[in-house]
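During the second year of the project, the team shifted from modelling isolated chains to modelling whole assemblies. The rationale, set out in the original proposal, was that interfaces cannot be judged from single-chain predictions alone. As a representative example for this report, we include one of the complexes processed in the last quarter. Its constituent sequences, exactly as entered into the pipeline, are reproduced here:
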Amino acid sequence: MYSILKKEIRGFLSSLIAYVVIIVFLLLIGLFTWVFADTNVLSLGYSNLDTLFLMAPWIFIFLISAITMRSFSEEIKQGTFEILRTKPITSYQIILGKYLAAVVLVVFSILPTLLYFYSIYQLGLPEGNIDMGATWGSYLGLLLLGSGYAAIGVFSSAITPNQIVAFIVSMFICFFFFLGFEQMSQLSLFGGLDSLVQSLGIQFHYESISRGVIDTRDVLYFLSLIVLFLVLTQFVLDKKKW
Amino acid sequence: MSIVVDNLTKIYGTQKAIDGVSFSINSGEIVGFLGPNGAGKSTTMKILTGFLSPNSGSAKVAGLEVSENPLITKGKIGYLPELNPLYPEMYVKEYLHFSAESYGLKNVKPRVKKVIETTGLLLEQNKKIGQLSKGYKQRVGLAQALLNNPEVLILDEPTSGLDPNQMTDIRKLIKQLGQDKTILLSSHIMQEVEAMCDRVIIINKGKIVADDLVENMKSEMSANHRITKVSFRDDIDKEKLESKKDIISLKELGPGTYELVTDESVDLAQILFDFAIQSNTIILEQREIEKSLESVFQQLTKNV
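Output from the structure prediction step:
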């Protein structure tokens, strides 16, 4: 697993994917947080990072799908997957290696935003007047959300040798999990089951963690989501006809 | 026994890719796996390497069932897949390091260095794989398969797409590796198999049609027939020559040049001499051709 993880991260670095993803993410978040008239902290006047945590899930839908789209597609298309599979490593190790590489990249794109946090902490009146609980909760939520997207992305990439298809499918599944269940529950189609449907969505749990209270149910939800998609990935790869 | 395949069957949809294939290979043998495209060579190899699982039958490598001990058997095999898939954006050394790590090797550095020397990649080791010529890419593919010092090497068309010089180089390398390893290599180039292998297994439409030592196979097939190449100075009447009762078959190779199949007991020189006089021409060349594995292959895999 470690060898795959290392290879993937080297791949991100040498193909510039890592730099592009981190820079684009920081640039977009930076613009929303500090520059754009409707959303910047300075004119809103509250010392919080709400803009970051509101925008990041949307930006991640694109960026994480882009990070993960080639993880299996490329290997399947180039035939290198056959080399990986005939090495003495299990398919779980291959999947986990690739998945963790994507998660590492997500972590490294979130990390620099701590600088934004520090700035706002300094700007608070009095200094340090920021809701610490909500902020750290939101960071954890964002991390879990990013990890969930990464699992979805890896799965999408395993179902097709075409990177573009993988990218679009991944965006759609991420979008559906983030907003789809939430929206469906608001249509009152399921009667008493509406709240259950709502709790299947990412947004419900993301917002719950963002309040600063870490509920094990929310954490469990994200972990199950990740495990579900990684197991599905394994299933798809094993069932493939070569 | 390094490789034992018993009654192996693999079905894709409704089509049997391989159908009850059985053979075994002793340690230290170099065996050529021949067959037309789509005969089931790659499928058999993919099952041996644990990439595919068979529908029925057993495949053993180094005494262990592949499907039951995938990690152990994979560790004992070096595999070069068909078309030699590689990561073009990786550097040669980087790729070999990665491969060595994925085998779970401890002393990666010296091992990679050794393999780079064996495969003659010293000057190319710091280049990107995508920049290498096909011959060197093939060496990288071989190097990758050698890192774990495998007991068994499985090479799927190791020389396809190479120019004649590169082919000779790779063949030499394989022959050299065969001194202490069991090698199963597939090919549809007959001369290659004749040059490298001790034994040949011919497969057609998923079934094994021949399995014997190279010399045996050649002598068996040419037991009572002889092939002769003959050139006349002028164009001759082909049908007239063909109608001679001792000539079993005749193939035109060029103007005035023919390949004749006759019975071994026939005195062909006499017949041809008489014929040349009748046709008012002279014989420029008459030479017996050694029966090649190619003709054996064609006989066995044609319309079976």
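The interface with chain A takes residues 12, 46, 49-52, 70-72, 74-75, 77, 79, 81, 83, 85-87, 89-90, 94, 98-99, 101-104, 144, 148 of chain B (CB under 8 Å). Chain B has two domains: 3-214, 222-301.
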